[in-house]
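Aim 2 progress update. The chain analyzed this quarter is reproduced below.
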Amino acid sequence: MTDLQKRSLLKVAALTAVASAALVGCGKKEEPAQAPAAPAASAASAAAPAKPAPLKIGFAYVGPVGDGGWTFAHDNGRKAIEKEFGDKVVTSFVENVPESADAERVIRDIAGQGNKLIFGTTFGYMEPMLKVSPDFKDVKFEHATGYKQGDNIRTYDSRTYEGAYMAGVIAGKMTKSNTLGVVASIPIPEVIRNINSFTLGAQSSNPKVKTKVVWVNGWFDPPKETEAATSLINGGADVLFQNTDSPAVLKTAEAKGKRAFGWDSDMTAYGPKAHLASAVINWGPYYIKATKEALDGKWAGGGHSWWGVKEGAIDIVSIAEDVPAETKAKLDEVKKGLADGSFVIWKGPLKDNAGKEILAKDAAADDKFLSGVNFYVKGVEGKVPGAK
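Predicted structure tokens:
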């Protein structure tokens, strides 16, 4: 075989090898065919339901949240709403809103910021809220301690006179001078009723007691409250009560070696040696109820709610260790009676401090009567400011 023939054979072999390799390299294992993709879900069916926007709730406070009393108690109620409903609500507040024309501006601003449930937490906001509410038909207005309602405004209150009576039961037992002192805020039925109830409670423990009153004409004014408390102590009072919002009265009693009560919130820390007990308000139950009604679309304007011991809105707490056991037992009985309706604070025979009969024997005062109290009961000295 010539070299030329050998080269030709080698060339053919090489070409054959290359072709075979090419065929092997191009071969593929057949994969099973994929199922056709399912049609894309429509946007409407795939999207999760839209989460409702939270209910915006606004509060107007007459004092600072740190007053230790009235406004502090309301702010605890606001926090109770947040705890109960979580991200279903958003709450906010404006503090130190005066009971004047400025209240209308603030309440109008709270509504304008998108709050759909608004709580005005003092008596002096009644007229401003009545003026603002017709301009915001989709807003639900709640006014504390008032008596005028409208299509989208209703009122609520707590039976603070029940706490005042229970404090009186203790005061009558603990006084040594038989003279009690009350630092009072503004002469409206709510406050006058509390002074009288405190006195009635004290008389149930000690018929010899008398009550002196000094008015400061304001809810939160620590310097005036201090001055009034000092005046009462100088006048012989050794147990002080208050219907004002700061702990100034308790602090004054502590400084002067006398006894006193906390009011609206537990004030023990402000005067631990002087503190006999605190008559407190729990606004949480009502605020939770009102918020749930708003969230459920069941809130209705008009009407009035007045809650007390029965509804868990009023209590007497942190009773001092030196209060006698029999007095504590009596308080338990009073509290139980208020809760089940078997005990009535305002029941005749009852006379005012001028000797006029105001409730006949066995007659019980109804809410209309209690809402219009403008006199002192027997045992309270002086006259109600502005009363005829």
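The mean pLDDT is 90. The longest helix spans residues 3-26. These observations will guide the mutagenesis experiments scheduled for the next reporting period.
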